[in-house]
């Protein structure tokens, strides 16, 4: 583990990685300490998942300038290279087959993707190891060539040398340096949590969570069929709301159980896992980065930065956004239904590449509409509206009032040639993953007791979730003090506010931007 971190830090500028394990003590020239360190350095992650770790050799190959210098854009459209655990991988072929969609791989070209890889994938300790096995089979390669002076030379690795790199986006040299250190320490923290079993799922908790959703929907349906529309709407609405949070947990989760349960959101809410995963994971990888995170890209309906600040064209709606924001969020689940259906009908993912239609999921969505059709119309309409309104208000509250990161404007949002499409042939600039999470969200302290915590469905531990998306959500509250302690020790900037404050800050942000 430490090995992996050190390889990333101590790659030298000539492009050769030195014997990473000895490096931290090299300047002290104390051989005994080096020997001890070598003996004690922990097993790398791929080895722990049963995969031989070819990266961990005495002479680390290939030469990988994790530098630090600014790099050139890829020579050809096909060149896609990612750095994971100190090893460069040629991902040009893999991008086309990547189960999460090619967009994620292409956007990370030329960058250290270690943190985001372990955050999202199955790699052993979190229920499966498919992604780690796949990674070990990818062709290894050398780093993208540096070409100083090139007009395309506009990007940096996330762990760039702050003294020399030109840093686009919202990062500054000081912040970049801090982000680099944080990333290194975070990997050790993650390993510690893995070893302590934080990623293990509990059968009892899984059954209880599912029983609540099914119970509320079943009771609600019974009430609806027996002439109690108000109670039925409340019961089904809450069931759908809880299904939203539970589906979120399943889709992030790894392993057979979560994989199987990915159908649940389609069955209860008509939301497709494929569509949602792509949208939501863009939010996870590039949190609060304008142009990529669609959770903060809602103009002209919601403006999080004024046109003066963002340089984008204004719209008359902006002046009223704080007035309509809270009621308008009632359309969220309707919108997600529409977008899920459109995903299949268009057969395309965000970067325009064709998707493989999951017919079982389509069947589950059809079953959902069949169930709704058996309910009285006001109950069906009311339940979807109520659940979407609750989810919409809680989801937006945890990010909208936080720092918005103006990504390299050249990404151009989702317009033509933007979003890291194959045609763009360029490497993008993002802020570092771990640091971004601390800057882009905070935890909420529920002030109205357990009922409110239940309604938040885990979103009140938003920071824990963003750092460890594959961890079961019922572990997050216990993790909170542990994370806080770690964050304080590393000056990471852990933040928490009463839930009422967060909701108010969210609304105030909209009002302030409206009044500019
Ligand atoms: C280059 C090495 C990579 C390999 C071998 C790889 C492999 C995989 C595999 C096997 C899956 C299926 C789910 C799983 O088993 O975890 C997956 C899903 C996914 N990957 Fe990757 N991946 C790579 C890089 C990346 C990167 C750098 C990102 C993000 C920037 C990313 C984002 C995703 C997303 C969003 C999903 C979908 C998750 C879901 O459906 O819930 N992948 N990847």
From TrEMBL:
<dbReference type="InterPro" id="IPR001199">
    <property type="entry name" value="Cyt_B5-like_heme/steroid-bd"/>
</dbReference>
<dbReference type="GO" id="GO:0042759">
    <property type="term" value="P:long-chain fatty acid biosynthetic process"/>
</dbReference>
<dbReference type="InterPro" id="IPR012171">
    <property type="entry name" value="Fatty_acid_desaturase"/>
</dbReference>
<dbReference type="InterPro" id="IPR005804">
    <property type="entry name" value="FA_desaturase_dom"/>
</dbReference>
<protein>
    <recommendedName>
        <fullName>Cytochrome b5 heme-binding domain-containing protein</fullName>
    </recommendedName>
</protein>
<dbReference type="GO" id="GO:0006636">
    <property type="term" value="P:unsaturated fatty acid biosynthetic process"/>
</dbReference>
<dbReference type="Pfam" id="PF00173">
    <property type="entry name" value="Cyt-b5"/>
</dbReference>
<dbReference type="Pfam" id="PF00487">
    <property type="entry name" value="FA_desaturase"/>
</dbReference>
<dbReference type="GO" id="GO:0016020">
    <property type="term" value="C:membrane"/>
</dbReference>
<dbReference type="InterPro" id="IPR036400">
    <property type="entry name" value="Cyt_B5-like_heme/steroid_sf"/>
</dbReference>
<dbReference type="GO" id="GO:0016717">
    <property type="term" value="F:oxidoreductase activity, acting on paired donors, with oxidation of a pair of donors resulting in the reduction of molecular oxygen to two molecules of water"/>
</dbReference>
<feature type="domain" description="Cytochrome b5 heme-binding">
    <location>
        <begin position="58"/>
        <end position="122"/>
    </location>
</feature>
<keyword id="KW-0560">Oxidoreductase</keyword>
